[in-house]
Specification:
five-stranded antiparallel beta sheet; alpha+beta; seven-stranded mixed beta sheet; 577 residues; 20 helices
Length: 577
């Protein structure tokens, strides 16, 4: 729908970080989102003791163009499929001496020759062909008051014998190999083994490299694309988060560190998510999944459904593990950002720490259980009755009215002895739709959380700053695509709701309607009778009340009366909300 993806809440990629000195806010001032400097740590964060200081050249990395999935991670014209390409030319400028030498090395491997450094000073460098009689030569100098280098002289022609074959390819060192294969690793889901690096170097340059060089080259490429090593990534995080808030006004970021300046917790809620939640049904699914990087940790997520039944990410958190403290910290930030709706429902699995945290942070909210997680628990406890459980449990959990529930629950308990006591101990209101004190709508599981975890399965291997950048890219992509589709929506409802209404209208044509008075109607559906009250917006099947969408019986009444189906839908499904 249109409203959860407002045009003024678009994402903006953080600009390159010049240095921590330049980007950190004044300690006495808060930022424009109302988040103080205590919320975002203003010094480089360390994951453990005695991490060496990060070089300033790494801090100056282009954050926007260095993450996985960003096809602009290298400049056009300089970087090609294999890395830094392009002809060496006089007056060509390079961003650093390393970039210059990398370009020379790849040129040498491509043209099947080798060079050596004839003279190197802080202000200039001269390289020449390894053959003593060859005239090929390049001279470059560093530009004044800059890190840039320019080629000042280039003798392009080789005069060495054609049968001259050096014993080894000295240019095929690890960091050059890394630059050569970097584009192969942009997709974090790709499996790229050292043996693949060796094959690519042989195929593209005719160069044989050892397994160890291939492995080190691949690691160099990973470090480059992932904004440095895991330790460097933690040091980059505060600056990145500051720029993220600066370029996305309204976003909320909390970075908490220990007394020793060690990373503890991270919370992120983008402005688009904060604004859009007020137009979504107040049912939040929460879950946690393990990170796979060097320092491990846990990713906490809070998501909901938009009007079109799509995943709507609300907030992300990172902590050390799933425990009472981390869950309470994360949910506390969720509460402070999104507030407390009187009709709020939180859906999760039965993790003990989640239960404790929800009771502490959201004591007034209804806490429902994912029915599939509970089904898996039942299968574990009643191993010899899995078929009967699958046959009866899902229908019992999903049914809307109490009359049907009692029939289905009796059937389930008769088929699986002992399950009645187990489910009643869990609480009937926590896993059934019919007993829930607050509307769960159609959100009976944590599938949206599990789906989001599945989307992030590969990027969970990345260092912390690259991982956060991938989350930003994912949300930016989703929100842009959905906002564009919503802008072209001409119907009153979302596409998903329109489809449901059309299907229900088709079924409603076969339902009989008897008018009792101006607002009350008796509806005959197969062999069952239902009562629809248009004054109270109720149907005795209870689907109308719990989903806030007209059921088959209500649509049958609409078909024979002046009522309009769109007027009977919750505002959460409309594009006018």
């Amino acid at each position: 729908m249109e409203m959860p993806y407002p045009a003024h809440s678009q994402f903006v990629a953080p600009t390159p970080i010049p240095s921590f000195v330049d980007v950190l806010p004044n300690a006495s001032e808060g930022n424009e989102q109302g988040t103080t400097t205590e919320d975002v740590c203003t010094t480089p964060v360390e994951p453990y003791q005695n991490v060496p200081p990060i070089p300033i050249s790494v801090v100056e990395a282009d954050v926007e163009g260095s993450g996985y999935g960003d096809q602009t991670c290298v400049e056009e014209g300089i970087y090609g499929e294999c890395g830094i390409l392009g002809d060496i030319e006089e007056h060509r400028i390079f961003r650093s001496k390393k970039e210059l030498m990398t370009c020379l090395s790849i040129t040498a491997m491509t043209e099947k020759f080798q060079y050596k450094v004839f003279k190197s000073k802080p202000s200039f460098v001269v390289v020449c062909c390894v053959h003593t009689s060859c005239s090929w030569r390049v001279r470059a100098k560093k530009l004044v008051e800059s890190e840039y280098w320019m080629v000042t002289k280039y003798e392009k022609k080789h005069t060495c014998p054609t049968d001259f074959k050096p014993v080894r390819r000295r240019q095929a060192i690890s960091w050059v190999v890394g630059e050569s294969v970097k584009r192969k690793l942009i997709n974090p889901g790709r499996v790229y083994r050292p043996r693949d690096v060796m094959d690519d170097m042989k195929r593209k340059f005719g160069v044989d490299i050892s397994y160890s060089v291939a492995w080190r080259g691949r690691e160099c490429a990973y470090d480059n694309l992932r904004l440095g090593t895991p330790e460097q990534s933690y040091k980059l995080l505060p600056g990145y988060l500051h720029m993220l808030m600066d370029t996305n006004p309204g976003s909320v970021v909390n970075l908490e560190v220990s007394d020793g300046n060690k990373f503890q917790y991270l919370f992120i809620a983008f402005a688009a998510s904060i604004h859009g939640f007020s137009y979504c049904r107040p049912v939040i699914s929460i879950d946690a999944t393990h990170l796979k990087g060097k320092y491990k940790g846990v990713l906490f997520t809070a998501v909901c459904h938009d009007a079109n039944q799509q995943i709507f990410p609300l907030s992300f958190g990172v902590g050390d593990s799933e425990n009472d403290a981390s869950w309470s910290w994360f949910l506390g930030r969720v509460k402070s950002v999104f507030g407390v709706n009187p009709a709020l429902v939180i859906v999760s699995d039965r993790h003990r720490n989640i239960n404790n945290a929800v009771k502490e942070v959201f004591p007034q909210a209804f806490h429902g259980i994912c029915m599939y997680h509970l089904l898996n628990n039942l299968k574990t406890k009643f191993r010899n009755k899995t078929k009967e459980l699958e046959q009866h449990y899902i229908r019992t959990a999903k049914t809307y009215n109490l009359q049907d529930f009692h029939v289905l629950f009796y059937t389930l308990c008769s088929a699986v002895p002992g399950v009645k006591e187990y489910l009643e101990a869990v609480g009937l209101d926590r896993w059934t739709r019919s007993h829930a004190p607050s509307r769960r709508y159609n959100i009976m599981t944590t599938n949206i959380s599990e789906s989001l975890n599945a989307v992030l399965v590969k990027v969970r291997e990345l260092p912390i700053t690259a991982f956060v950048n991938e989350i930003r890219l994912l949300c930016q992509k989703w929100f842009h695509e959905r906002r564009t589709k919503a802008g072209g929506c001409t119907s009153m409802m979302s596409k998903d709701v329109e489809t449901k209404l059309e299907q229900r209208k088709d079924r409603a044509q076969a339902i009989g309607v008897i008018c009792a008075d101006q607002y009350t109607f008796d509806v005959v559906d197969s062999d069952r009778n239902y009562c629809v009250d248009m004054a109270l917006w109720t149907c005795t099947c209870w689907k109308f009340q719990l989903d806030q969408l007209p059921c088959d019986h209500v649509l049958a009444v609409v078909h024979k009366t002046p009522y309009q189906a769109y007027d009977l839908c919750s505002l959460y499904y409309t594009r006018e909300f």
